[in-house]
Amino acid sequence: PGILHLRIGRFLPAASPEDPLTATATAVREAIRAAGTLRAAVLDLRGCAGGSLQAAVEVASCWLPPGAPIIEQIGRDPARARSLVAIGPRQSDAPVVVLVDAGTASSAEVVALALRHGRRAPLIGSPTHGKWSVQQLFMLPGGDAMNLTVARLHTGDGQEMSGPLQPDIGLQQDASETWLRLRDELAGETRPSPDRQLERACELAATLALAAGR
């Protein structure tokens, strides 16, 4: 009770240019508001291959104070270099635990890293994918296209990122079991085998909530 489980499968951009926030950040904020008084949150990024970097910044901002460093984007073109920081207002000061696995990549890794650094949010699961680059699609004559890496991602203090994020609490679980359980949950069914990673995350979230007096 009082622990919000947020599962993000993809970081989606805004539905239209007029929207003040991306679609994913809007959904996360609505879920936090609907939950009322939170004791803690479990942010489930297992199998999330990334998506909109702006959406990742906005989601991380839900738990970070305005102006907190999130990630730096460094490219060959100096015009592409930019520092991304949290944008207010913060939506929750409740403890947060992050679930990750080998399918957690790109923008999802940015969120996990930002919450680990900015909120000391523990990561539970298995090592992430390790994708710390930004690609751009260039159209070529004849209808062909080329996807090129245009920038690399660094931490807020300038450290270049490479390789997977290692979880603070390693707990291996077959990815197929995770997604079969999700499929059954969406169908209103219950799998006989438990989601051990999610159970461990909820236990830790409850412990952090108690330590914070929530």
Compute the average pLDDT: 91
Percent strand? 15-25%
Q: Which spans have pLDDT < 50 for at least 5 consecutive residues? A: none
The outline comes out as globular
Structural class: alpha/beta
Number of helices: 5
Describe the protein.
The longest helix has 16 residues. The strands form two sheets. The chain has a five-stranded parallel sheet, sandwiched between helices. Strand 7 and strand 8 form a beta hairpin. It is of the alpha/beta class and 214 residues long. The protein is built from five helices and nine strands; from the N terminus they run E-H-E-H-E-E-E-H-E-E-E-E-H-H.
Q: What does this entry show, briefly?
A:
This protein is α/β, with parallel strands linked by helices and 214 residues long. Helices cover 29% and strands 22% of the residues.
